[in-house]
Amino acid sequence: MNALWITLALLTAGFVGWPVTAWVFRLARTIDDRTIDDRADAGGAAAGGDAAEDPSADSTTDPDIQPAAEPAGPDTATPTPAAAAAAPSAPSAETVSSVRILRGGAIIGILERFAVCLAILAGQPVAIAYVVAIKGLGRFAELKATPVAAERFIIGTLTSMLWAAGVAALAKVLFLG
After folding, report:
1. Half-sphere exposure (CA, 13 Å, Cβ side) for 53?
2. Of the candidates 85, 91, 90, which has an alpha carbon nearest to the alpha carbon of residue 67?
3. pTM: predicted TM-score of the whole model, two decimal places
4. Taking Cα atoms as reference points, which of 17, 6, 15, 12 lies closest to residue 160?
5. What is the model's pLDDT at position 66?
6. CA of 23: how far to CAs of 87, 100, 111, 112, 145, in Å?
């Protein structure tokens, strides 16, 4: 019976944590929007424009980073000049103005919540420090370069960890004794 409760706790922590984290992101955006609106009302126009129209407020892209051109692989043929002239012009990778940041965040979040919940259920809360260290070191370069990513990382990590710890603690107290 304990295996069933542990499995249910892990699934709840891992998969129900995603909508909870998404809700906290929306809540944070709403609070940011109100703060910017209050500043705009008190001091005229806000420096960044209307918060509801600010795509960087809740974005996972950074418009300041230019993507690198993708190298041609062994299976890509170089078009002939006639074929290149006949083909419609498509935007190249160099014209894209934003690069996606914090890729894989949803999968990492699920794994993080599984690990935190399992660590608490196993009575090894020290393992949570390893999860935080691995996650932080893996994202360090992105977080250092992009303040928007750093803020989302902190909000998402804290929300995920609190959710997983709460589910694990509840399961441990109510069902596992």
Report:
1. 5
2. 91
3. 0.65
4. 17
5. 52
6. 45, 21, 19, 18, 26
